[in-house]
Amino acid sequence: MQITQEERDSVYKTIFARRDVRREFLPDAIPDDVLKRVLTAAHHAPSVGYMQPWDFVLVRSDQTKARIKSSYLQAHQQATEMFASDKKETYQKLKLEGIMEAPLGICVTCDRSRNGPVVIGTTAKPDMDLYSTVCAIQNLWLAARAENLGVGWVSILHDDVLYDTLNIPQDISIVAYLCVGYVSQFNDKPELEKLGWLPRRPIDDVIHVDTWQPTPKEP
Ligand SMILES: Cc1cc2c(cc1C)N(C[C@H](O)[C@H](O)[C@H](O)COP(=O)(O)O)c1[nH]c(=O)[nH]c(=O)c1N2
């Protein structure tokens, strides 16, 4: 099967128009068929040894979201103390989650023992199952964008709140908590770029031929 020019354009358009969403969520419900398409796209991600180690826990309860939000606030406060004084104030003002506003939360987990102790592709690099789960998340993020749904990844969270509120066994790894919903608008650029936190690095700074080269640590 060949991809046509028009189809190719749509893929690139979706990639470049995808954004991390925090503040623009609308309360509108996500139709079941749309959500199923997005999760099915996630489930068709590549995975090491075809392991498909992921699960998706859908979070709809406001009570559960409120517990996760309160854990976020704690982690966010702890994070504030870690930044150098010139960045601390800016960091504190950033909105870095839409936990309550988004109609849906999705906790993405990785069952590292789903296929027994020896899995093709993980024998030399054991974390490949976690990376596979991240591939599923990226598929989800792009499929959601193609459905005009926003996704925001919230990692300023300690996992214990998710283990506890979502009843996740301790031997399951938590990879992501995502906020998902329709949005009032998609930013044309990453918000952190717009706010002057960091610029996008030039593409040629990160492409190297034959040997790895350092790129500047700070822009
Ligand atoms: C693994 C991981 C974890 C996080 C993120 C991303 C990824 C990949 N991002 C989103 C991140 O800030 C964003 O992707 C970049 O700023 C680039 O913006 P766009 O995604 O292109 O809009 C993110 N954003 C946020 O507001 N709070 C968060 O906790 C996180 N955590």
UniProtKB/TrEMBL annotation:
GO terms for biological process: cobalamin biosynthetic process. GO terms for molecular function: 5,6-dimethylbenzimidazole synthase activity; nucleotide binding. It catalyses: FMNH2 + O2 = dialurate + 5,6-dimethylbenzimidazole + D-erythrose 4-phosphate + H(+). Pfam families: Nitroreductase (PF00881). Residues 16-182 form the Nitroreductase domain. It comes from the Bacteria. Its EC number is 1.13.11.79. Keywords: Flavoprotein, FMN, NAD, NADP, Nucleotide-binding, Oxidoreductase. InterPro entries: BluB (IPR012825), Nitroreductase (IPR029479), Nitroreductase-like (IPR000415), Nitroreductase/BluB (IPR050627). Homooctamer. NCBIfam families: BluB. Belongs to the BluB family. This is 5,6-dimethylbenzimidazole synthase. It comes from Echinimonas agarilytica. The gene is bluB.
